[in-house]
# Entry
Amino acid sequence: MSKSLLSKLIPVGKVAKAHGIKGELKFFLYNSKSILLLKEIQIWFKIDDKFESFTLVSNRGKNGEIVRLNKINNRNEANLLKGKEFFVSRNDFPNVEKGNFYLNDIINFIIFYKKKEIGFVSDVLTLPAGNVVEVNIKGKDVLIPMVDKYIEFFDFDKKIIAMKNIKELINL
# Structure
């Protein structure tokens, strides 16, 4: 597998359990509103420290979360994937409307505060109260809510986020 493809694999869920005797799987999606599984795509699993691809053959359920993959033909084979995280290439994500973005797209963006680089986005968390960016500042992770109070602007071309009003959150 090429490094460029590997860098584009995004974790989107885990296998909850085998479903039935014919090798179907019940997927738990990190984004319960995702329609990603409703189209034919490659699903990737990390097996023995290597990524292996499977083709989504069929799906059913509200968001397609009960799936059948090629190479998985019975419950025993399906059980081997139970609890494993699965990945999808970023290229397989549906396009978003203008002005919107996928949260995983801002991971590794550089964070600026008062025109000074202070760190980078190491993760984005989806919480009931809202989305939060995990910012690595000098090796320390700081959680900052993604709200207008703290976000000045995003620049997707330069891969930066300018923040404001975060002095009390980051202790600079």
Residues 103-170 form a domain with the SH3 type barrels. fold (CATH 2.30.30.240).
